[in-house]
Amino acid sequence: MKRVILTSGPRGAGKSTYANSFLERNPWVKGISRDELLIELFGKTSLSPYTGGHEYAYEIFFERIEKILNNSKANLDLVVDCWNGGPGERKGMLKKFRDFGAERVICWKFMTSLEICLDWFMKKEDSKGYSEFGFRDDYRFYHKTSENIEEDGFDKVYLINPLQLDLFN
User: How many whole angstroms separate alpha carbon 46 and alpha carbon 40?
Assistant: First the structure.
């Protein structure tokens, strides 16, 4: 069975840290990270929305996901670590995953408090240029647009509280 696990949560929620820890503990699971691809392509994760860099990166991102799924003979677990703000974006991703051969698509929805997300995000090097006000707006946007994430079409949604996992101490 080909299974895709999509991380979902606001900036600074611990998605990448959790995904990387999971991948280290489960070496047979494959992983792909949007942030790692942005760094590979542009040297940073924060890009101007006017350059077209994000669109180009998503094109490459989905080409790589398709290749991973198509090159797998049978069983495959693939963790896709990627920001996905609204239901339309998530539904589009789900359709692509299924078109690429994923038989199950699971969501890890990160339930991290605003204060923790803000603290973790502002410590990142790529947080320069972000205001606390803008960050709070993004956080509220994510949670408003993911209230009914179970209706997006995932086979299963798991709520993740990364603070319970002893990864962040």
Answer: 13
CA distance 10 to 135: 9
CA distance 72 to 76: 7
| pLDDT surpasses 90 at 54 | no
Residue 169's pLDDT is 46
Q: What is the mean pLDDT of residues 24-31?
A: 94
Q: Which two tokens stand for residue 143?
A: 């949670």
pTM of the model: 0.90
Q: Where do the domains of the chain lie, and which CATH numbers do they carry?
A: 2-162 (3.40.50.300)
Comparing CA positions, the residue from 116, 135, 126 lying closest to residue 13 is 116
- Phi, psi angles (nearest 5°) of residue 107: -115, 135
Q: What is the pairing mode between strands 76-81 and 2-8?
A: parallel
